[in-house]
Amino acid sequence: MAGSNAIRGARVGSGPMGEKDHGARAERIQVSYWDALGNETVRSFAADVAPEEIPEQIDSPTTGLPAGRDRENPPLLPKNEPYKTHLAYVKERRTPEEAEELLEAALQKLRQRRGTARASA
């Protein structure tokens, strides 16, 4: 006859806590979060969680945007930098004087490294 490790009459998973204290039957509070597009996400937390442990913002699962608890003032949409064309990069280029200074500074660093490498060899 095959035996089991379970004690006769004991239910698997039962412990010092009652069933109402864990799992689907635990007391829960529901908190609503809204993103910038007006989507509502409802999250539930255990009733005994301290209010300061409930996060003020989450990422909305529907849009991926930040969502806050204030319906009237949800977090703003993140700013996306527009794609820069080659012409925009050309307009940002340094002046020839700045370019010469950068080149000279880079050459000085290389000369210093080369000098220390020859001295140690």
TrEMBL record:
<dbReference type="GO" id="GO:0001000">
    <property type="term" value="F:bacterial-type RNA polymerase core enzyme binding"/>
</dbReference>
<comment type="subunit">
    <text>Forms a complex with the RNAP catalytic core and with free principal sigma factors.</text>
</comment>
<keyword id="KW-0805">Transcription regulation</keyword>
<dbReference type="InterPro" id="IPR025182">
    <property type="entry name" value="RNApol-bd_RbpA"/>
</dbReference>
<comment type="function">
    <text>Binds to RNA polymerase (RNAP), stimulating transcription from principal, but not alternative sigma factor promoters.</text>
</comment>
<dbReference type="Pfam" id="PF13397">
    <property type="entry name" value="RbpA"/>
</dbReference>
<keyword id="KW-0804">Transcription</keyword>
<protein>
    <recommendedName>
        <fullName>RNA polymerase-binding protein RbpA</fullName>
    </recommendedName>
</protein>
<comment type="similarity">
    <text>Belongs to the RNA polymerase-binding protein RbpA family.</text>
</comment>
<feature type="region of interest" description="Disordered">
    <location>
        <begin position="49"/>
        <end position="83"/>
    </location>
</feature>
<dbReference type="GO" id="GO:0045893">
    <property type="term" value="P:positive regulation of DNA-templated transcription"/>
</dbReference>
<dbReference type="InterPro" id="IPR038638">
    <property type="entry name" value="RbpA_sf"/>
</dbReference>
<feature type="region of interest" description="Disordered">
    <location>
        <begin position="1"/>
        <end position="24"/>
    </location>
</feature>
